[in-house]
User: What shape does this take?
Amino acid sequence: MIMDFFLRQGRAQPVTPDAREVKASAAGRVMAWHGSNRVAWSARDTGTLTRQGFAANPVGFRCVKMIAEAAASLPLVLQDTEQRYSEHPMLTLMRRPNPAQGRAELLEALYGQLLLTGDAYVEAVGGVDGAPVELHVLRSDRMSVVPGNDGWPVAYEYAVAGRRHQFDVSQGHPAICHIRSFHPQDDHYGLSPMQAAAQAVDVHNSASRWSRALLDNAARPSGAIVYKGAEGQGSLSTDQYQRLVDEMESHHQGARNAGRPMLLEGGLDWKPMGFSPSDMEFQKTKESAAREIALAFGVPPMLLGVAGDATYANYQEANRAFFRLTVLPLVSRVAANLSDWLSGFEGSCLELKPDLDQVPALAAERDAQWARVAGADFLTEGEKRALLGLPALPEPGCADG
Assistant: This one.
């Protein structure tokens, strides 16, 4: 606080060279630079990003929850080149992947790990015949890739509570499915949206802390206590300074002391200070940081209630863009990875993909597409089904043959 700065000037004492030599803090120079002209950003490791950007930031939390819940709620269909399956062991496994989770819980955890860390790992627990009977999402911060001599992964190592377990993927079909986001500078790990939004998260959190500090001081700017002693003396003794600081901390700081009058003794004068233009811009800075976080995750700010965003004409249009540009590409990529991986256990070629006909946000687009395809008389039934993403009808006589 500015007041504290002025008060400390009064008791500043010269520092002898010997005293400076005694100080041996390795962080002293870092703190000095921090206070001068360098910005102190949060660490970029997975744990810090998760705590600061998800657990401690409402915008990041809501972005991850919205995408993960929307993606996990999309119905999935299983088909090959000939038919669409209503019953299949893969669908049964996806409906109940393990005794503790259903399909929605498993997929929400998978999408959440992918959004927070850029990587998602799914473990298949095999039965007697080798086919998977359970699926489990493993925490990405506990998993590490073990590359071989050629750079390709030969194992995945999972570490928890000092114990390590390696999943060998060099031979046979791997028991781990690794889904990762695109990272231009890493061969083994993905780049998460949270890393791209890290600076905006720091700005948003700092603005929130500043607002909290302002509220704790009765939502008023601070000021300075100026001491004018007798005969022009402008400094307080050590005891006088400490007494004044203690009185300010105990009787005039915090929300419970809001509005309490200040009693100043002789020689002390209170000089209030108003908000500077930079202080008045804090709320706009916070809203701008919130829009940048939403932009990194691909969530329209209108859906988050962020003020000042007029990109879309209405909420329905923003919701449709959210599903079309963010949710569907994510679900399609994850479903393709899972179907390729699970198909390898039984040697089949199946495709798992989202059922667009059951997405309420895309109902208008679906109706328009069906109307256009149905009105195209120059297309055959097989071509129409292919345009709609449906498998071809069986040839007449195939069932009898």
About this structure: Residues 315-346 form the longest helix (32 residues). Residues 1-13, 19-37 have pLDDT under 50 and may be disordered.
